[in-house]
Amino acid sequence: MKTITKVNKDDVIIKFAGDSGDGMQLVGNQFTSNTALRGHDLATFPDFPAEIRAPLGTVAGVSGFQLHFGSSEIETPGDLCDVLVAMNAAAYKSNIKNVKPGGTIIADISGFDKKNMRLAGYQETDVLLVNSASTNFTFFQVDITKLTVESLKEVALDAKDKDRAKNMFVLGLLFWLYDRSFESTLAFIEERFSKNDMVKNANSLVLKAGYHFGETTELFTNQYELKKAVQSPGKYRGISGNEAIALGLMVASSKASLPMFYATYPITPASDILHFLAKQTKTFNVQTFQAEDEIAAICSAIGASFGGSLSACGTSGPGMALKAEALGLAVTMELPLVVCNIQRAGPSTGMPTKTEQSDLFQSLYGRNGEAPLPVIAASSPSDCFFAAFEAVRIALAFMTPVILLSDLYLANGSEPWKYPEYNALPEIKTRLLKESKEKFEPYNRNEALVRNWAIPGTEGMEHRIGGLEKKDGTGDVCYDGDNHHHMVKLRAEKVANIAETIPLQELSLGELNADVLIVGWGSTNGSIRTAVKELLLEKKSVAHIQIRYLFPFPKNLKGILEKYKTVLVPEINNGQLVKLIREKYLIDAIPYNKIQGQPLNVAELKNEILKYC
Amino acid sequence: MKTITKVNKDDVIIKFAGDSGDGMQLVGNQFTSNTALRGHDLATFPDFPAEIRAPLGTVAGVSGFQLHFGSSEIETPGDLCDVLVAMNAAAYKSNIKNVKPGGTIIADISGFDKKNMRLAGYQETDVLLVNSASTNFTFFQVDITKLTVESLKEVALDAKDKDRAKNMFVLGLLFWLYDRSFESTLAFIEERFSKNDMVKNANSLVLKAGYHFGETTELFTNQYELKKAVQSPGKYRGISGNEAIALGLMVASSKASLPMFYATYPITPASDILHFLAKQTKTFNVQTFQAEDEIAAICSAIGASFGGSLSACGTSGPGMALKAEALGLAVTMELPLVVCNIQRAGPSTGMPTKTEQSDLFQSLYGRNGEAPLPVIAASSPSDCFFAAFEAVRIALAFMTPVILLSDLYLANGSEPWKYPEYNALPEIKTRLLKESKEKFEPYNRNEALVRNWAIPGTEGMEHRIGGLEKKDGTGDVCYDGDNHHHMVKLRAEKVANIAETIPLQELSLGELNADVLIVGWGSTNGSIRTAVKELLLEKKSVAHIQIRYLFPFPKNLKGILEKYKTVLVPEINNGQLVKLIREKYLIDAIPYNKIQGQPLNVAELKNEILKYC
Amino acid sequence: MEVEKNIPTLTAKDFESDQEIRWCPGCGDAAILKQMQNLLPSLGIPKEKIVFVSGIGCSSRFPYYMNTYGMHTIHGRATAIATGLKLTRPDLNVWIITGDGDALSIGGNHFIHLLRRDLNVNILLFNNQIYGLTKGQFSPTSTQHQVTKSSPFGTDDKPFNPMTLALGAGASFVARSIDREAKHLQEILKAGQAHTGASFVEIYQNCHIFNDGAFSMYTDRASRKNAALFLEHGKPLLFGEENQFGIKLDGHQPKIVDVKHEESLNDLWIHDESDGIKANILSLFFETETFPRPFGIIFQKSSKRDIDQSQPYKEISVEQYNHLLGGKENWTVL
Amino acid sequence: MEVEKNIPTLTAKDFESDQEIRWCPGCGDAAILKQMQNLLPSLGIPKEKIVFVSGIGCSSRFPYYMNTYGMHTIHGRATAIATGLKLTRPDLNVWIITGDGDALSIGGNHFIHLLRRDLNVNILLFNNQIYGLTKGQFSPTSTQHQVTKSSPFGTDDKPFNPMTLALGAGASFVARSIDREAKHLQEILKAGQAHTGASFVEIYQNCHIFNDGAFSMYTDRASRKNAALFLEHGKPLLFGEENQFGIKLDGHQPKIVDVKHEESLNDLWIHDESDGIKANILSLFFETETFPRPFGIIFQKSSKRDIDQSQPYKEISVEQYNHLLGGKENWTVL
Ligand SMILES: Cc1ncc(C[n+]2csc(CCOP(=O)(O)OP(=O)(O)O)c2C)c(N)n1
Ligand SMILES: Cc1ncc(C[n+]2csc(CCOP(=O)(O)OP(=O)(O)O)c2C)c(N)n1
Ligand code: SF4
Ligand code: SF4
Ligand SMILES: [Mg+2]
Ligand SMILES: [Mg+2]
Q1: Cys-Cys crosslink for D171: which of A12, B52, B239, D166, Cβ 3.0 to 4.6 Å?
Q2: pLDDT of B596 over the 70 cut
Q3: Which CATH code is given to the segment(s) B237-424?
Q4: CB of D30 closer than 6 A to ligand 4?
Q5: In Å, what is the CA distance from C143 to each residue of A373, C153, C160, D169?
Q6: Does C327 touch chain A (CB under 8 A)?
Q7: Crossing angle (nearest 10°) for helices C108-117 and A294-306
Q8: C-beta C30 within 6 A of ligand 3
Q9: DSSP codes, C159-183
Q10: How much is the pTM?
Q11: Per the CATH hierarchy, to which homologous superfamily does domain C12-214 belong?
């Protein structure tokens, strides 16, 4: 028997990459849940090809799944990976530049034959997978396809189906490498293929074959071990950003005792919210509506809101553009509504499968006239839950549409989440008015300038609202100049009043008075935190805040910003938050922009920060 | 015969006001063209009721026309009027607050009977039209209706038609008061009613009756005289902002040797551009297309642009919101296109018959992703011509959509215009490519980063473009992160390059280094100029610039702004340009915002400026 | 719709709001408003359960004048807004008020989708064949070659046939009436309201400011009997001064016959609201010069949609929420 | 369209662009592409005069693969974009490529308006009854109760009948074909192209990833002869394994008859493309379970639009422009 060395690691980044048909997402997800159950912290990010099924074996068809796990806090799926699993030459080609120097590549050599080399765009004479000083990688060449088929020789599946099981071989092999048990995946196979014994059996066989291959082959002599992360006690689950938004909306509307109406039109990367919610419609007070377009989606949501539902929409950039006119209507009508924009790379259709945070300005200003509304952003997959919950709270407390910003990276990424008990979450108050002594006037307001909400069916409160300017109080159509000035100011003030109900901005890392403050928003949280943490370890004078409330800003933001010589604002856009800060506080905040369809690279960000401290 | 005193005046503001059916617009227009022919400078502004025909006699149904004319430069139709012509109680009620202390009111007492008083919302006991120290107005009560009918007793028209001619009586009377000849109006009547002798005759009779009434009645003892304005020699005409835009687009496309395509969906206050252009389609190379909505309008314009037309759209706020998504497409496709936004009061439907400048942010930022495009604004009715001409030039020189901002006040207002000869206007260059030695690549660029324009029908240049991110050069679909970053930056830089081709910002009034600089944009030019001129006469240290190029800004803007202690930015919105300046130059520019659906009040603005100098 | 007990008897007056009517005096819209106010008390629906939803246009001012719940929204979107309202509040009685531009130009898509979905709402299209509010441009129902402000040389486009369009989109109730026929209009509104599913009623409405007399052939004494065909279920198709003309089907082709001379009444086309093919033939009369314009219920069938009338708020247990929060797979850190 | 002289003879290959095809291997879209590339050389239109315009969806990738001018635009708007192109460039040969979501969901309004305006363009609707590109949500042509990613319990909505919708919007050419019938497809494309006015061709297209087999009854050996009815102008309506079934019109009602036993061929419904009423009856077969699905040209009539084929750039004199600039009334200051 071979000697196995146990190697300790703090964290590991693995990228599973193969053809769209190779089942890499499944491998990634299985390895992830196993990792989570093992008690490591982690973050994942799948990257799908733009095409549904690009031609087999081509770079365009590569599907990947990146997992970062470790024994301390994990903030991002990581820049460069320690281990690349490449199921074919195309997967190798599109990922090799993202492997750490000294990293490991596990390659299925069946995927590197002449045909696959050609499809990936290599010359027949190109030499890959060779250990050499220049590449500085460690290559493990395994004929995974062949080994899979061999392990199934007793099974009466056809060749294609046998071939398809090769992802289980990879999974088994990695389970061995990281010294895991494969019970969780066996259970998964049991459930998933419960209706097809043959396939179930085959998958289990191959999974075990992969594991045993690791155990027996001389190729691998190391096994990697990581300590459990120190996690605060509680109940955990894995969650993606889109699932978290769906849950947040559902739970919040229940906390407000309102039925929920989710109106949308499919668009990447928002569609999964619809898919998730649609499944809940029989069990919970949720209705989903796939409208004929984004305009109809938001309009139907406005109709439902008038009718007394908690209405929400989900979309992405181009769909958001189409909602502009109706958002203005919701502002004037002062109806509650949550619009989730799961951003992707623009402009126009842009790169629908790549991430970006370039719709902040659109959220703030993309409407005709003065139509202010609150904008908040989520900063991690699980944070999407709280952001959605908060969006609902604000919409109902202030009778206003709210824009909630997420993005493709949060939507598809996932992480462990210490989820709350339902009872631990606060109730949400609404402005619903069931009866009134005086004559009901729809635009009568409370101290915070918020109007009441009387819904059809409520006797004696019949009233009409609309998109023409309205007289404050009565809500009658009004063309008076002074009233209009008053109403424009009032709508702005009402939104400004939200600042009274939101938490003060907290410093996320570092000290007040450090040399540099890094100001982020949204999904850059992980990258920025990682960079700043590392710099703090290097004793650099740097601090970090991540702004959730983009409009209005927290009341103490100015005070924080003024404490720093340098304010650096990294964004995955061409500079938007940085402009808001410059304008509002007249601070010479510096933009840092990488617009490459992916999360900020931590190493590059660190280099940038180092220029200022 | 009575003695007539000739009174000299520098300028006069007259407001004609009556029921929608009273023909006040016609009176206003006739008096205006007479005034222009007489050689005075002038500015006019009609204000229509929001309803097509609100109930007769009500305040909602009042239609007005304000004319300001004089012997020196006239910048605005004026805040308060010297003379109010009130055809009924409602017209009186809605305009009396805008008459100067000491002003004159000419009232048709038939319009102040019990019924009209009630319809206007007065008590029967209310006492109007009475000269008293407290009101400080001079009232002339004339039974215009009765006098009109009397002057037509020989004419076989029915009572209703006779009644309708009363506007001619008013006109005649005012011609006498301002010592005019009525020949121009006689000629107009001749043409307008050429097909109906009876009506023609009646109108002429009444016009003369009005004039002679002035001559003979003891009521009027003053006649007012104004000197001719000192105008630079040349050919003049009266023009409204919408006409000027239509002309500017037409002439510019001809100067570029391109057919013009105007695609739109009717909306107040932009529709008149369509009405004007539609009339030219048989004679000029102009095609108009009334689309099914604003999305179809801009999309058809994009299609026509791809086909080699100079495409333009006209709309207002809500329609602009609907164009957001397609504007992004035009940005990515890098196609020339001019979109005119004739702004009105928002948000949502807002007040469609009131003016505002609140769509600046929407123009700059109202799209998904980073989708920069140039934005320019017109500053007076006649300036709309040059702004449109310039918009076309930029669109064609830079292969980009351009947003041209006007507003209801410019659109409907009019002024004398020293119009250019066709040959005096410059040719416009396009990026049309008819042949090429190398393989044609749609995203190959010149030094200014502008691509070529090859249109269908051009052999050998077949190519495909679209809204997905494109590889620079070839234009192929491209998901590469570095290319995307490059393209985002490139699109921004291309627009920034426009600053190299636009005039430097000029100081409009005052000195560099004055205490206060007033920075305006768009239609506020007249009000600001008037205020600043008056303050300069009062020896205040104040200066004024009006920014036409809102994105990108002129290169020297920073230099100008930095010369002043105080920068005050008056806008008819809640503060938009002011934010752009603050953000870009980190200057503590101060907003001044009046959002009342009408031009800035000069007196109020002066008071505001006085706070700083 | 379940009619609640003990509703105080309402009158037309109860449905008048306190807002001054701002249509041009004599506008057809006002006549339609009146019939609506006359109709509603007879339905026995409490005021607070009724919602009028409109887009933008002269006609879309309608909700302001109704003392019920109402929304005056944005151009073309009333149908979409009403869709969300009705989906979430099937207990409400929802009326959509829209114009020819609002419904068929900018709002065309939501219009056909609402008919396809066949929600239980009432759509009233005030067709004046012009854009009233924006002062006189052609609409998608303006006649071909019509001269308007935006078509000084006449329009190029042929108009929509709103009936074939609605039928083509899958409408389950299609009818036509006219502002000047008070009684007919009220009956049609009532029938539309009684229909379960989306009812579409096109109402010819005179805009005497910008398109006066567009429908005068159907209202003028001299022409109306020859130009208009009033349909009644189960009755033969007759028209003309003295009902002297009838229509029969020769195979699948309609023919006008002189009843007095040629044919017995028995051979005539008997109107059958439920016959989709006949409905289509009737609606195609629009495209001819020879056939009279049909008024009345052209088509009515039972809706294919499972219409969920009551959607009670479910009581969900805390456990269910905790289960939802916990997802499929979770673990405990101690 | 005037065909220019001396065009070098083109081959299918000339119409292939240099872009790699990125549809799922086996997608029906590729089969349609092939037929288009096969067809175009025979039309004698120079490559540079042809433009393909598409929206967004799997099918909308089409223009990238055609070596002609092309635009891949935004979701639902291909029809609107093509409208502007064709209005200003009537000399071009314009093809619109769109999907069931693109044309009938988000783009429904432009679709019906284009048919109403009847511009001389060709609209090809790739109907796979699903959203392909966004990975499997239902579309407005998905069957009622279809289970998809966004309808885990089945859809509530009934689908559009694209044929009645197009006819209802005033289409002058309406046809149906299917990806698997290469020859039929090519013939229909050719006929659509030959039609002056907007031609609408619905093409059943299999998405074997998200909605496999949606049309297998029309392609499977076992069922196709009974399920599909291939129309030919002037020929009787026959279908079945051995053409044993015919359709006749009993008055205005279609009936299926057993040709062998009951009826002589002479009594059968003879297909007449120009008969709008028959076209509607044919298109209503879609809504039945008993009648076969018609393929071929369902309707074709001459367009009502005055189609201005050539719109030459006018030479305008400087005087004309000076006159325009001077307006009606002007004066000179000396
Ligand atoms: C997005 C948008 N585009 C355009 C308009 C301008 N607009 C208001 S009403 C209207 C058309 C009115 O015609 P119709 O729907 O037939 O109603 P009518 O006034 O004739 O009753 C238009 C174009 C608008 N308000 N919003
Ligand atoms: C404004 C907008 N909304 C939504 C989308 C997302 N989207 C892209 S294609 C598509 C539908 C595709 O279905 P279909 O038109 O039937 O084409 P197929 O992919 O089936 O060929 C959707 C919803 C988008 N690109 N733009
Ligand atoms: S313009 Fe026409 S439709 Fe509008 S209110 Fe007046 S008459 Fe009625
Ligand atoms: S998803 Fe369906 S429609 Fe799209 S390319 Fe694949 S098979 Fe074709
Ligand atoms: Mg209308
Ligand atoms: Mg599809």
Answers
A1: D166
A2: yes
A3: 3.40.50.970
A4: no
A5: 43, 13, 9, 15
A6: yes
A7: 70
A8: no
A9: PP-HHHHHHHTT-SEEEEEETT-HH
A10: 0.96
A11: Thiamin diphosphate (ThDP)-binding fold, Pyr/PP domains (3.40.50.970)
pLDDT bin (cut points 50, 70, 90) of residue A156 is: confident
**Which of C255, C268, C280, C282 to mutate: most D Cβ within 10 Å?**
C280
Mean pLDDT of the region C155-179: 97
Q: Is D311 exposed, middle or buried (0-12, 13-18, 19+ CB in 10 A)?
A: middle
Delimit the CATH 3.40.50.970 region(s) of chain A.
Answer: 237-424
Looking at chain A, the domain(s) classified CATH 3.40.50.920 span: 516-609
DSSP state of A596: S
Range(s) within chain B of domains with CATH label 3.40.920.10: 5-225
Q: What is the pLDDT of residues B219-241, one digit of tens each?
A: 888 899 999 888 889 999 999 99
Q: Which structure tokens are listed for B389?
A: 């001409």
Specify the pLDDT at position D94. 98
Whether the CB of A597 is below 8 Å from some CB of chain B: the reply is yes
90-149 of C, contacting A, C-beta below 8 A:
91-92, 109-110, 113
Q: Which of the four CATH numbers 3.40.50.2300, 3.40.50.720, 3.40.640.10, 3.40.920.10 does domain B5-225 have?
A: 3.40.920.10
Residue C278 to residue C284: CA distance in whole angstroms = 10
Give the phi and the psi of residue C31 in degrees, each rounded to 5: -65, -40
Closest CA to A380 of A66, A13, A67, A74: A74
Tokens of D177: 């074909």
For residues A332 and A549, the answer to whether their CB atoms sit within 8 Å is no
Judged on CB neighbours under 10 Å (0-12, 13-18, 19+), D199 is buried
**Each residue of D112-157: pLDDT tens digit?**
999 999 999 999 999 999 999 999 999 999 999 999 999 999 999 9
State the nearest Cα–Cα gap between B98 and chain A, in angstroms. Answer: 13
CA distance B404 to B320: 11
**In this model, does residue B540 exceed pLDDT 60?**
yes
Instruction: Return the domain boundaries, chain C.
Output: 12-214
Q: Does B560 touch chain A (CB under 8 A)?
A: no
CA distance C180 to C206: 9
Q: Is this complex's ipTM strictly greater than 0.90?
A: yes
Q: What is the rounded radius of gyration, in angstroms, for the C-alpha atoms of chain D?
A: 23
DSSP C285: G
pLDDT value for A49: 80
The phi, psi pair for C116, rounded to 5°, reads: -60, -45
Q: Whose CA is nearest to atom 6 of ligand 3?
A: C24
Q: Which residues of C touch B54 (CB under 8 A)?
A: 22
Domain A516-609 has CATH 1.10.630.10: no
Mean per-residue pLDDT, A530-553: 97
Which has the closest alpha carbon to C209: B53, B272, B55, B23? Answer: B53
B133/B457 Cα distance (integer angstroms): 78
Contact B275 C149 (CB under 8 A): yes
Please check the confidence at residue C5 and state whether its pLDDT lies above 60.
no
Contact yes or no for A485 and B596 at CB 8 A:
yes
- B290 Cα–ligand 2 center, Å: 27
In tens, the pLDDT along A75-107 reads: 999 999 999 999 999 999 999 999 999 899 999
Return the number of other C-beta atoms located less than 10 Å from residue A480's C-beta.
15
* Minimal-distance CA residue to ligand 4 atom 5: D23
Does residue A318's CB lie within 6 angstroms of at least one atom of ligand 2? Answer: yes
Amino acid at D166: A
User: Quick one: pLDDT at residue B53?
Assistant: 76
CA-based nearest residue to B36, from B411, B530, B414, B420: B414
A296 pLDDT higher than 90: yes
